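S.,

Sequence below, as promised.
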Amino acid sequence: MDYVAAALVEPALTQPATGTVHHLTNPRPTPLGNLLDRLVALGHPSTVVSEQAWGEALRVAAATAESPTIATVRALEAAGPRGDEASGRYRFDDRNTRTALDRSGLRCPSVDDTVVDRYPTAAMDSGFLPDP
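The prediction came back faster than expected:
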């Protein structure tokens, strides 16, 4: 989080306010499989299914459950796939941010298991995610 805060402040302090867009992305994104592996390591069971089976399970859940998460799934389903969304490949141009941060020496730290574990642990602590 310290990196994110510094990366948000750096361009604001060093770049003119000209309406330039600064997307903050991780140059080494964490694969979904790593996140799922960490959930299993924390005691949550996991079953590997096809993308088609996963999509069907989401559709069934969206049709039968009430929650903010399911409402999001419903909205995405209703919108339907468009362009990069259909392929699951969103692209954010982070050149402006990288240029600003390169001058500052700020570097995005690696996202290791300790960092990944913070999120499901916090979700379990808050009751959002059930304990295993």
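Residues 83-87 have pLDDT under 50 and may be disordered.

Coffee later?
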